[in-house]
Amino acid sequence: MFDFDRYAFIQGATAFLIAFAAAGVFTIAFKLIYQWVTPYHEQTLIREGNTAAAISLGGALIGYVLPLASALSHTVTLREFAAWALLAAIIQILAFVIVSRLVYRKMAERIEAGETSAAVYLASISICIGLLNAACMTA
């Protein structure tokens, strides 16, 4: 019925594992840098049950992983993927800085206070930026 090419599978599986591991490392690095940039400590707030902190961090992660997925499907080399991953992180962090420090200066206080509406707004912006970022990577 179908021929199984073991060599092709091993090659494909190896490429998959390298790409997946690289994406995982970039995602963890982004999360750590993003948490360093934010004026509040997400892990502590989330452990204390602050839903707003979880929503805003989750939105930032989704907003970052969307262009990462696009970069994975549109690049050929690991170096090219790394460059796009770095650019996506910079854009996502810049979006947070602009929104939280220039547009909506009370954002950090509202997240720390557990205001879900502020978190949903911030997460939505992060996801929108991520979608635009991902779409621009296809060009």
Account of the protein in words:
The chain is mainly alpha-helical. The chain has helices spanning 6-37, 42-47, 51-74, 78-103, 107-112, 116-136.
Give the percentage of residues in beta strands: under 5%
Structural class, from helix and strand content? mainly alpha
How many strands, which pairing sense, and closed or not: the largest β-sheet? none
Distance linking N and C termini:
38 Å
Gyration radius over CA: 18 Å
Q: State mean pLDDT (0 to 100 scale).
A: 93
Q: How does the overall form come out from the CA principal axes?
A: elongated
Helix content: over 70%
How many H/I helices?
A: 6
Order of helices and strands: HHHHHH
Low-confidence stretches: none
Secondary structure tally: strands: 0
Compile the SSE list and pairings.
Blueprint: H1 6-37, H2 42-47, H3 51-74, H4 78-103, H5 107-112, H6 116-136
Task: Summarize the structure in short.
The protein is 83% helix and 0% strand.
Overview features:
mainly alpha, 83% helix, 139 residues
